[in-house]
Amino acid sequence: SWTTANVVEDQVEAVRAQIGDKRALCALSGGVDSAVAAALVQRAIGDRLTCVYVDHGLMREGETEQIERDFVAVTGADLRVVDAREQFLGALAGVSDPEQKRKIIGREFIRVFEQAATDVVADAQAHGETVEFLVQGTLYPDVVESGGGTGTANIKSHHNVGGLPEDLTFSLVEPLRTLFKDEVRAVGLQLGLPESLVWRQPFPGPGLGIRIVGEVTADRLSTLRRADAIARAELTAAGLDREIWQCPVVLLADVRSVGVQGDGRTYGHPVVLRPVSSEDAMTADWTRLPYDVLQRISTRITNEVAEVNRVVLDVTSKPPGTIEWE
Ligand code: XMP
């Protein structure tokens, strides 16, 4: 019978059978799927799993710490955090076009992860061990969409460590490939992951990089991160997290408007609140948030984030608007 405990037990057994006495590697994204997949594999093979988290500096407030601290505390996983914040900012300098930003973020992510994977493989080799497996948080709907195959992944090795082949080939371990999202969440809770991680709303891979309309800079990221944290805290406090599919907060970094605060004129940036209701992100409606919640978010952001002097609400459905602004 289907119980979460059974699923965990079965998958742990299957992972042990697949990996044997070899080692595995997993890229954590900060999202639910990779975290649950990694936690399951950790339960199966312990320290023979190495997790890599690429800190690209485009996460929201507290998300990197959630992985570094909470995920590790619960799972005991061997985690390597790669601080690539400067590299990503450098690559994004001067770029405003949304698709260009996506390409750059994707390309830098692959570069950083390939380097980290090379290091993990080389370290294992130095101890006479091999890393043959790559863990991925593929869910059942992804399996159906891609036609059902499973297989291998190639990663370009970076030769500065020596003694490695040109391409590293890994067999895929996909412990969630029979599960739907709600089942993955149940498994995550069963494994002790925190609710705030397990119930995290969808967040795009390119992160805050595509929520700054304009060039991405360290200062703008800091501004958006503070505004976003306030919006999220107020929505959570109002008990609205599960009613909202997601609520991007977008910084219009190239727009300025005149305002007044205290006895001075301000000339600051607007942020947009984009709360949406949806089943699958293909279509969406704007969420009718209670006025008092909107009021608290607006007051707090304009009081607490000096660079922002206006909060606006996006009341566009999808279509014609997309959920994200970029
Ligand atoms: P849009 O903006 O197209 O978004 O209505 C639909 C859903 O996809 C997410 N999204 C992304 N996710 N990489 C991702 O991993 C991306 O480049 C990306 N762009 C949008 C968005 O947050 C929403 O859930």
Overall description:
The chain is of the alpha/beta class. Helices cover 41% and strands 21% of the residues. The structure holds xanthosine-5'-monophosphate. Residues 102, 202, 204-206, 246, 281, 318, 322-324 line the site of xanthosine-5'-monophosphate. ATP binds at residues 29-35. One of its GO terms (molecular function) is ATP binding. Catalyzes the synthesis of GMP from XMP.
**Spatial strand order of the main sheet:** 3-2-1-4-6-5
Q: Report how far the terminal alpha carbons are from each other.
A: 44 Å
The number of strands is: 13
Largest sheet geometry: 6 strands, mixed
Strand content: 15-25%
Q: Are any ligands bound, and if so which?
A: xanthosine-5'-monophosphate
CATH class of the largest domain: Alpha Beta
CATH superfamily of the largest domain: HUPs
**Structural domain count:** 2
**Global structural class:** alpha/beta
The averaged pLDDT comes out at: 96
Describe what is shown at a glance.
The chain folds into two domains: 4-197, Rossmann fold (3-Layer(aba) Sandwich); 211-313, GMP Synthetase, Chain A, domain 3, CATH 3.30.300.10. With 326 residues, the chain is of the alpha/beta class. Helix content is 41%, strand content 21%.
